[in-house]
Amino acid sequence: MFQQRKDNYKKIEEKRGSKLLVYVTSDRPNIGAQISSDILSPFTEHLDKIGDVDKISLLIYTRGGNTLAAWSLVNLIRSFCKELEVIIPFNCHSAGTLISLGSNKIIMTKQATLGPIDPSVNGPLNPSIPGSPDPNSKVPVSVEFVDSYLQMAQKELGIKDEQGLSNILIDLTKHIHPLTLGQVYKSKSQIQMLAKKLLAHHEVEEQNEDEIIKFLCSESGSHDYTINRKEAKNLGLNIEKPSMELYRIIKDIYDDIEKELQMRSPFDPNILLGTSNQNSYQLRRALIESIDYGTDVFLSEGTIIRQVVQQQGGQRAIIQDNRTFEGWKRENSN
After folding, report:
1. DSSP string, 54-91
2. Which residue of 4, 132, 148, 272 has the lowest C-beta tally within 10 Å?
3. 166 and 114: one domain?
4. What are residue 15's phi and psi, to 5 degrees?
5. How far apart are CA 119 and CA 203, in angstroms?
6. Which of 184, 199, 234 is the last residue of a domain?
7. Model-level pTM?
């Protein structure tokens, strides 16, 4: 919990000569969280308490999220400091990698990984995830996967006539909403533009800029590809290896947050219910912390109900999720 982590936060601030912000989005199976624009308000409260300083360290763990939210977060933090460094304890993928590009320096542990920044479109019109206990969960639509699908139709299947390509596109819209596909097209050029602007802060060699963007946007092959510390440095990014003492502090912080957010335990409503047919829940899905302003936590709260219904051939249990709250809450004050 925050009070136990606070001493380690102080140690990082002393060692780095900075003010520390911690941002973690849970990747707990079935109930994870992503970077989104709703972080800007709580981050502003933390930054107002910190004030204008020379240097801010952002310790971040995330699997990604909204690219414009990532862009806005970098600009917000940088408006409060002269120098921004990112500390990565483990995974910092997709929009998290985009945030890292906007720093002056990236501190990566031995297990830390970055990832491609080819965006995945997330929105209410995305396809729903079949069988997910979260009624609001949607399938992210990868920009590169859509592009690869269309390229496969032309290059591998040899479909080049207008009618054939038109049929491929029409079939695609049966599974992915046309407005989502339009957003995919827009996102591709947008992510390249954002990456180029953010790399100006990172102070990479000018001749490396285009190669870095090209690799992160498409040439890595898959959105699941991971980039370790050595490869990130070889790409031309400004990477620092932490001392063993700093590494242990970073790892202690991450291990404590991982345990608090139950990130290794898949969310299963049947386990939550046990032998009962109704149970309330409170799920911790993300947090923002600083010594100066304490903790903001992203919560999902509600009641899980199991109903047994009669169907042809027997009975079937249906799980109903009555969610009563979802959003950020102030929890610990300094």
Report:
1. EEEEEEEEB--B-HHHHHHHHHHHHTTEEEEEEEESSB
2. 4
3. no
4. -70, -35
5. 23
6. 184
7. 0.85
